[in-house]
Amino acid sequence: MCIFTRIKNKMYAGSIIKVVIMTIKKVFTIFSLLLLFACSVNDPKLPEWDTDWKIYMPTQDFIMGEEIINDSTFLAGYANDSIPIILFKLEDSTDWERVEASDLVLDPQTDHFSAGIGDIELGDYDDLYSDSTRIPEIIPAELFAVTDTLIPYDSLTVYPPDDSFEFTEYEYVTVEKGELWITFCNETFLNLREGLIAKIYSENGTSQYLGEIEFTQPISAHSTVQSEPLILNNRTIYNKFRIEYIIPVEANPSPRYLSEDDRNGYFCTVLSMGELIITEGRAKVPEQTAVDSAAVEIKEKDNQIISGTVESGSIHFNIQNMLPVGCYVTVSLPNFRENGLVKTFSSRITAGMNGVITEDISGLAVINHRSSGSVIDSLDYIATINSDSTTEPILITSEDSVIVDVTTDSIRMASVTGIIDTVDFDIESLELDEIDVFEDIEGQIRLNDLEMHLVFENEIDLPIYANLKIVGKRTDTADSVVINVSETIKAASASPTTIININDAYSDPSIVDLLEILPDDIKIAGNATVFGEGSVSVGDGLRARYTISSPLTIQIDEALTFKSNEIDSITYDDLDEEQRDQIVNDLADVSAMFNFINHIPIGGQLKYYMAIDSTDLYSDDIAEPSTKIVIEANIGPAIKGADGYVQAAVLSEWNQEFTDEQLEIFNYPTIYTRQELTILSTDGEVKIRQDDSIEIEAILDFKITVDIESD
C-alpha cells in the first residue's frame, strides 16, 4: 500500500542560469572593449566569482488522512472530543453453516415380532334340549297295580334312557378353557332325593368319558335345577355328547291315582356350553381379534429426542398371514401423531399370504406417549389382527399367527426438542491472505486499544461450544501469533447473538500481539459443536462475524519504516548538458538541503535514494558512489499538547555535501529517486489526527565558480 502523497515541486532553473551567465559574459565583453581604447595599462584579467543556483528534487509528503484512510481498513472517525482521528478496522464474516436433516436422525433398530391369533374364542353356543322322558319310562311297570294307580313303594333309583346332544358349530376342539353344565327339569309329581348324577360322554365313534355332574340338593316335583359346571380345560371334545342318568326317587307310602297330567309328566335336560377358548380345533370360527405390540429400541448414541417433527422417513411392515382365514392388520404408531391423532393404518392380507406395507411418516409429530416430556428411548408398534369369520368348520390352532417384521429407515427429523448427542460444524475458514495494510511497513507497533469483536449469530435453540484459532502471519519475517478462542454460544432463545470481546487482556498472546507483527495474513478457522438439551430445526444456522478495530492510538515498539515504491527522476529537461558540465568542471561546492515540517508527534528519519539504475533504489548497498547516492536525514517530532495530540509543528533542516566522486552522477541523463520514511519508536502511546503530516522539501544547492576567460 502506498502511504505517501507525491508532491513534486520542481523549479527548472537551468535556462535561467544560462541567461544570467550569458548576460554576465556580454557585460564583460563590452567592458573589455572600453579598456582597449583607454590609456595604456597592463593587460586586464577578469575576476572570478561564485554564484548559487538551486534545483528542487522530487519528494513525497506523508499525509495521514489522505494516504492511510481507505475504504476498508483505516477509516475516518472522531474522538469523543470531536477531534477528527483515524480508526483502524478489519471486518468480515463466514458463510452460514446450517443444520441438515442428516444431523438430526432417529435410528430405531430393526425388529421382528408375531401377532399370534393366540386364544381362539368360539363364543357362547345355543343351549341343546333333550327329548322328554315320560313317566312310563321312569317308573318300573310292576309299581302300577292297576292302570291308573301307583302302588306304595320305598325309595328307589331309576335309570331313564340316555340323552344325546349334537353341536353343529364345530367338529372337535381342544379346550384351553371352557365348561359345560346341565339344567335338569323335573316336570313330574315325583320328588327326587339329593344325589342325582349325570355322566357325560363325548362321542366320536367311541365314547370318551368327560366326567359326572351331581346334584347335591333334592329336586322337588315340578322344579328345575341348574348344575355346577363340568370343567373341560385341557380336554379334547367332539360335537356329540351323551348323558347317562342315575336318579334317586323318594318313597311313595300310599297309593296314588294318576291323573292325566300325572301320566304326561316328564324329565328333560338342557345342555349348555360356555364360551370356549381353544388351542386347536375344526370349527366355525367367529371373527377373532388379537393384539400384540413391540417396543423397538432406539440405537445407542443417537440424539435423545423428547419431541419433534419428521423431515423424511418410512416404516416398512412385512406381514405374513399364517392364519387359515384372511384378516385385517391394523398397525398403530403411538409415538407418531397426525393432526394430533395416533398414526394408524390398515391392510387386508389373504389367508396364507404375505403383504408389505410401507408407511411414509414424513411430516408427522413425534412424542413420548408413555411419559410426556421424557426422552423417547423406544418406538412402539401395536398390531391388531381381525380375522374373518367362517360359515363352515375350518382347521385352526392357537399357533396360527400373523408375523410382522418391522424395518425403519433412519428417520430424519425436521425439528427436535431433546438432548442432542452432537452436531458438529466446521466453521468455514476465513482467510484474509492479501492484507496490504502493512505490506509497505517494517517494524512493530502496539494498538493497545485494539479489540476484536466476534459476533456469533445463532438460530439454534441450543448452546453451542465453539473452538476457534485466530492466526496472524507476516510472510517476510515468518512471524506468527496464534490466539485460541473457546466460548459457549448462547441458545437462540436466550440470545440470537453472542458477542465475544477479544482485547489485550483476553488471552496471551493477545489480539494486540497479533497486530503488532503487522500481519499480511489473518486466518480464522475452527469448529462448533451443538449438544445438550434444547430445540433445533433443519435449516437453523450459525455464522461468525468479526470486527477488529481501534482508534489509531499507537505505541511504536520498534521503528516503523514506510517503504514507498514510487520512483521519481531528474531528467535531461531538469539539467542540460552544459549545466551538467558546469557541475562537474566549475563546481565550487554542492549540498543537499532537506526541510521538514513535522505535524506528527513522533520523530523520524528519511532515506533519499538517487541512482542511475531504477532497480537499484531498494537497498543501502553502494557499488559505485558515482552511480548511487543514499542520503539520510533526521526529522524532529512535533510538539504534543496535554491531550496527546500535536500542538505545534516542528521545522527540521538537514544538509549534506556531495563528494567529487558523487558529483559525477550528474553526467548521466536520468537520475532516479526514491524515499523511505522511518517513524521512530515511542516511549508510550501517541495519538494521530487525520490531517497529521510530514512535509518534505529537498533542494540541491550548487555553488558554481564563474570564470569568464575560461568560459
Overall mean pLDDT stands at 80
| Main sheet attributes: strand count, strand direction, barrel closure | 11 strands, antiparallel
Assembly level: single chain
**How many strands appear in the DSSP assignment?**
55
- Overall outline: rod-shaped
Question: Beta fraction of the residues?
Answer: over 45%
First and last CA, distance: 50 Å
Low confidence ranges: 1-43
Total helical elements: 7
What is the topology?
Layout lengths: L4 E3 L6 H23 L12 E9 L1 E5 H5 L5 E5 L5 E10 L3 E2 L6 E2 L4 E6 L3 E2 L6 E2 L3 E2 H4 L5 E3 L2 E2 L5 E3 L4 E4 L3 E8 L1 E9 L8 E8 L3 E9 L7 E4 L3 E2 L4 E3 L1 E10 L6 E2 L2 H4 L2 E8 L3 E7 L5 E9 L6 E9 L1 E8 L5 E12 L2 E9 L4 E7 L4 E2 L11 E10 L6 E4 L3 E8 L2 E22 L8 E6 L4 E8 L5 E11 L4 E11 L7 E6 L8 H6 L4 E17 L3 E11 L1 E11 L4 E3 L6 H9 L1 E12 L5 E8 L16 E8 L3 E2 L5 E3 L1 E8 L2 H4 L7 E9 L5 E3 L5 E14 L5
Antiparallel strand pairs: 1-3, 2-55, 3-55, 4-5, 5-44, 6-44, 7-37, 8-36, 9-26, 10-25, 11-25, 12-13, 13-24, 14-23, 15-23, 16-22, 16-26, 17-20, 17-21, 17-25, 18-19, 18-23, 26-35, 27-34, 28-33, 28-37, 29-32, 29-36, 30-31, 30-33, 30-34, 37-43, 38-45, 39-42, 39-44, 40-41, 40-43, 45-53, 45-54, 46-53, ...
Would you kindly provide a written description of the structure presented here, covering whatever features stand out?
This protein has seven helices and 55 strands. It is mainly beta. Strands 7, 27, 28, 30, 31, 33, 34, 37, 40, 41 and 43 form an eleven-stranded antiparallel sheet that branches. Strands 38, 45, 46, 48, 49, 53 and 54 form a seven-stranded antiparallel sheet that branches. Strands 1, 2, 3, 47, 52 and 55 form a six-stranded antiparallel sheet that branches. A hairpin with a 5-residue loop joins strand 4 and strand 5. It is rod-shaped, with a radius of gyration of 59 Å. The protein starts with a strand and ends in a 5-residue tail after the last strand.
